[in-house]
Amino acid sequence: MATPRRMVVALATVLALAGTLLVSTPANAFPNAFFPTQSTGTRGADVVALQHLLTHHGHATTADGIFGNATATAVRAFQSSKGLGVDGIVGPATWTALVPQISQGATGPAVRALQVQLNEKRRLALPVNGTFDAATATAVRSFQEHAGIGVDGIVGPTTWRNLLWHYGYPDLATGICDKDPDGNGTANWATAAAVGQLEQAVRNFAGTGNGQVPLGDAGFEHGGDIPGHSSHEVGLDVDLWPIRTDSAQCSAGRITWQSSTYDRAATRTLVQAIRNTAPGHVRLIFFNDPVLVQEGLTTEYPNHDNHLHVRYCERVHPNSLYTC
Fold first, then answer.
1. In angstroms, what CA-CA distances link 75 with 101, 115, 129, 195?
2. Which of 82, 111, 183, 218 is such that its CA lies 20 to 30 A from the CA of 189?
């Protein structure tokens, strides 16, 4: 039987080892990171990266961030060349075949794809010049540390997967004003597709002269539970405020569809912009204006008198609530 002294020494050793393990394992690692599905109708930085990677593999594609017919054709050609299922949908198998291993000194479209991702996902301003220079290498190491993966400056499948999965942050200069009604701070993070689709919808709406679009909560940087919401955990839910007749929705406060200053026509235009910008990728829009509900533009749901809840979707997603 061990003596009390030996037991104390053994316990101290175990605690020291445990402490070492806790220190060496970052708390913000992304165990659920996956390659996000992209298909016809999606937009954003992940599509830009896809287009650069297709060009890297010899399937020249314009990097405009819009997954249109030309991109779908290039995807099918790439899938055929690699012996993959030819469906034009970029899922895990296609992403795995697309992403190369690159490191400092590399040049070309794959490096542009990397720089676009780092700028979007880490809110950087790297030149998208296709040169894996020292600044890009530093950004890669910083992201690897952030993601809790090996910090070596080499961009292989694990780094690509974590980077593509990571959420982006919308550009408020597109006509979005940031509102935090639930005290969640800048909980504006969402998937690159949701961000790209939202930004374009707001740009389109801006041309109507009805003011900016107030953004409530979307999600936290790495998803997960968000106070005041039963969803908003996977980067595909976005809350927006309805539009006012005085176009002062960003300065005069939130209203409901019953308010005297509610502008149904402008709110309808916003909803149509959201749907038209992301064809086939809007699962639903909760908002209780009975006229918009009757028109099939929104869906009635409790507690959605004063905001629009936009749920984007993908052709394939681990959570069935978010499949198109």
1. 20, 21, 24, 22
2. 111
Angle at 57 between CA 55 and CA 60, to 5 degrees: 25
Please classify residue 258 by burial: count the beta carbons closer than 10 Å to its beta carbon, then call 0-12 exposed, 13-18 middle and 19+ buried: exposed
Cα distance between residue 260 and residue 41, in whole Å: 36
Position with higher pLDDT, 30 vs 46 = 46
29 three-state secondary structure? coil
Catalogue the E-assigned strands of the chain: 176-178, 213-215, 237-240, 282-286, 308-312
Structural domain includes residue 233 = yes
Mark which of 130, 165, 200 sits at the end of a domain. 165
What average pLDDT is seen over the chain?
91
Q: Report the distance separating Cα 163 and Cα 8, nearest Å.
A: 44
Number of domains the chain contains: 2
Q: Which residues of 164-196 are buried (b: 16+ CB within 10 A; e: fewer)?
A: bbbbbbbeeebbbeebeeeebeebbbbbbbbbb
The answer on 109 and 243 residing in a single domain is no
Instruction: Residue count of the chain, please give it.
Output: 324
Using DSSP's 3-state secondary structure scheme, residue 275 falls into: helix
- CATH number, domain with residue 55: 1.10.101.10
CB 274 within 8 A of CB 285: yes
Q: Does residue 89 form part of some domain?
A: yes
Which residues pair with residue 176 across a beta bridge?
213
Cβ-in-10-Å burial (0-12, 13-18, 19+) of 77 comes to middle
For 189, the domain range is: 172-322
CA distance 122 to 167: 9
